[in-house]
Write a structure and sequence with these properties.
The chain has about 350 residues and is an alpha+beta fold. It contains 11 helices and 15 strands. Strands 1-12-7-2-3-4-13 form a 7-stranded mixed beta sheet, sandwiched between helices. A two-stranded antiparallel ribbon has the order 5-6. Strand 14 and strand 15 (about 310-315) form a beta hairpin. The longest helix is centred in the first third of the chain and has 38 residues, at about 15-50.
Length: about 350
């Protein structure tokens, strides 16, 4: 009888393994291509953005201008200018109908420590009703400086009031702000109490929520809280930090549409000094993305004057605050304690 022979065992198929390996290589190569493309796009976008920045003359030497200190000082300004907004857009954003030169709704001095320092950035809110001397115009609310002489006079007024020499300036108006927020897909805030403000066009519940551009503008403008302007300045600083965290989020930059929308929105919204570049803005954003120290200029009293209700600084506390920033040293304990 025929002898039964064992059938030869076929070798294990390899195609699946080869396919897996080829798939892995494709993923790696694909990721490399994406990274290279992103870098190339980023470099191209940076060059485009730097060329498109809207620059204005802000700083000039004048008699008695403060000497340069350590680190870098920015003046960040939010104005209530309606320039470029249609009547319909103004109604949608609840901006009101004032179409004048525009006033400074937000004034922040940001100090970036010098290279090698381990201090955090410091963000100082200046109340817009601060009663200060405006060069050539006498004493008035600080936001009148912008009306009287635009960014240049505002910058000189801030320099003379603080004793700090400013290095850079950045400004955003009513129209640009919500555009940037919408390009980011919204920004999360967490108000402790509900805020209802018909003048700002918002009715926000308490708790964490993502605001679109329209509601975000109302949130940073609103004074419908127990401490009015003081609360508003805190909200503005908190919102800026939240916006910068959102801007650096992988969830944002993994969406290719954001690569186009965010730079275009930011460039369209910003006005900067003539010496500012996108890499300066990048350094500012990176410093504020961390955990900056946030304070308000020490306040001595709220009072009245021929300019209406005004804020008078605590001269001793303000001097200690700005001296520390000028010398790039830690803020005095009494300045920080006064913020509580």
């Amino acid at each position: 009888p025929p002898v039964a022979t064992a059938r030869p065992v076929a070798p294990p198929p390899r195609p699946k393994v080869r396919k897996k390996r080829r798939w892995g290589r494709r993923v790696v190569v694909g990721l490399v291509v994406l990274v290279v493309a992103a870098v190339a796009a980023g470099a191209g976008t940076a060059a485009w953005a730097d060329a498109k920045l809207h620059r204005v003359a802000v700083f000039s030497d004048y008699d008695g201008r403060p000497a340069a200190g350590r680190g870098t000082n920015w003046l960040l300004v939010g104005t209530d200018s309606r320039e470029g907004l249609t009547p319909e857009q103004q109604a949608e954003l609840s901006t009101g109908g004032d179409l004048g030169t525009g006033r400074t709704d937000t004034i922040l001095v940001v100090h970036l420590p010098g290279l090698g320092s381990d201090l955090p950035a410091t963000m100082v809110s200046i109340p817009r009703d601060s009663y200060v001397d405006i060069p050539g115009y006498g004493s008035d609310k600080i936001n009148a400086a912008y009306v009287d002489g635009g960014p240049a006079l505002l910058a000189q007024t801030v320099e003379e009031a603080t004793g700090l020499r400013l290095d850079h300036y950045a400004e955003v108006g009513f129209g640009g702000f919500p555009t940037v927020v919408d390009a980011l897909g919204g920004v999360e805030v967490c108000p402790a109490e509900p805020i209802s403000d018909p003048l700002a066009g918002i009715d926000l519940p308490a708790g964490c929520q993502t605001l679109d551009g329209r509601n975000a503008l109302g949130y940073v403008r609103s004074r419908a809280t127990p401490r009015a302007d003081l609360d508003r300045m805190i909200h503005q600083r908190q919102f800026m930090s939240a916006l910068l965290h959102r801007a650096s989020s992988p969830a944002v930059w993994l969406n290719p549409w954001r690569w186009y929308a965010i730079p275009h929105a930011a460039i369209g919204a910003l006005t900067v000094d003539s010496d500012a570049h996108v890499w300066d803005l990048a350094r500012l954003g990176w410093a504020l993305h961390g955990s900056p120290t946030t304070v308000t200029v020490p306040i001595g009293e709220f009072t009245g004057s021929d300019s209406g209700s005004v804020v008078v600084w605590d001269a001793d506390g303000a001097t200690k605050l700005f001296d520390a920033l000028r010398s790039d040293t830690p803020l005095p304990a009494e300045v920080l304690d006064a913020q509580q």
